[in-house]
Design brief:
It is a single chain. The chain is an alpha/beta fold and about 450 residues long. Among the domains are: about 205-365, Rossmann fold (3-Layer(aba) Sandwich); about 380-450. It has helices at about 15-20, 25-125, 130-150, 150-165, 175-185, 190-205, 225, 240-250, 275-290, 305-320, 350-365, 375-380, 385-400, 435-445, and strands at about 210-215, 230-235, 255-260, 295, 325-330, 415-420, 425-430, 450. Strands 2-1-3-4-5 form a five-stranded parallel β-sheet, with helices on both faces. Helix 2 packs antiparallel against helix 6 (about 190-205). The longest helix has about 100 residues, at about 25-125. The radius of gyration is 52 Å and the shape is elongated. The termini are far apart. Mean pLDDT is about 70; it is low at about 15-20, about 130-205, about 365-390, about 395-430 and about 445-453.
Length: about 450
Amino acid sequence: MRPEQPQLPSLTPAQEHVGTPASPKIKALRDNIAELEQDFFLFKEETNNNLHQLLNLTSHHSVQQLQQLCSAVRHLEEDNQELRQELRRVREELTRREQHGHTLERLLEETRTQLHTIQQQQCVSTQPHSSPTTTTQHQRCVSSQTPSTSTNSAQQQQCVSTQSQSSFTPATRQSPQAHQNLSSTQIHPPTTTSSSFTSNGREQERKDNIVILCDSNGHHLDPRRLFPGRSVKKFWCPTSHSALRLLQEGALGAPSHIIIHTGTNDLSTRRVDVTKALTNVVRTASRIYPRAKVIISSLLPRRDVPQRIINNINVEIANICASIPNVHIANHQQITHQHLYDHIHIHREGMRLFAKPIKALTLNSPQKTHPDREERAGQLPGSYAAVAARRDRRVNKHLCGSSGVIRARLNILFVSACLSRSTRRFVTLGKEKRCLCLWINRNLGMRVRRSGT
């Protein structure tokens, strides 16, 4: 059995409340907490007020900035719209001017054609009457000069008769029937002259249209010195793509020659196949203008590209263009890096070497390094030999007596051209021909030097 424990007396709640009095520390702590709560509430309200004020200021400032930005964007849009309208008007004006330019070119071509036709008709209409008119004029000149200089005319007739007896051969004497045939052929020329004039005019009109598509190296080419007397148009094409676009637009008209020099700038970009691009340009030119003579200029050297690469490209282009009809290659093998004044552009001496093969291919003239002067003078239309031949024909045709008795034509073989650097002189060979020299000097205005005493 467990032992019983003693029972303690129980206390009432009032006795407990009376028995535990509040300490002053607890009261002080409670007062501090109440004050802290009040301070915290005041701090909270002040902080909230400050935040609201800052938010209001910030939002107002941002709204103003947004409004200003919106107004600025609106002004920019208006300006952009005005600029677009201005650009549209400029494009329309350029289009109208281009159309007007094409119209003027077409009218100019028609005017040239009409002018050629009128000139041909005038030449055909005046040619049958030219020889009788000139004959009568010379006869009048001879008849008017004989009364004033009777002594000289007598001496001249005597010299002419002696010369005709001594120098005439049977082959030069003609029968009256032959003389009539000769006069009939002179009065009535063959009818094929008009067709020949027409064909020559058309060929000359086609020859006058030369188009040059070139980059900056061809900028210093002078068309007036390169092709004198021809109509030359030069277009700036820095790349092969620009040349191809110009050909596809059909802005070249009806050219007879198309000279292409581009592709040098394409060598700086590795993404462009220069051989393929230039071949495409040549094929397009040959397809769109089948009657034009296409001349493709080879690539010039660059300091920043190895020369073997440029040579390989030129060889490939030459091999491809060999199978295309009416396409020619202008090689510039004489131009080296010494002819460049920078890494890509050629100087004046290089420009002469650059223009030489282009001009030779365009004009179909053979290239000669040192042509003979006498050979070149003999080929010129205005050379001394041609002048002498024309003078001989005039003397043979119009030299006759004042009374019309002497009708034979003199075969003057003693007048020859003396090639001189300063003056044109005609030399007579023989002592007994002084009288005839005086007559030629007076009537034909020729400068004669008598040889012998």
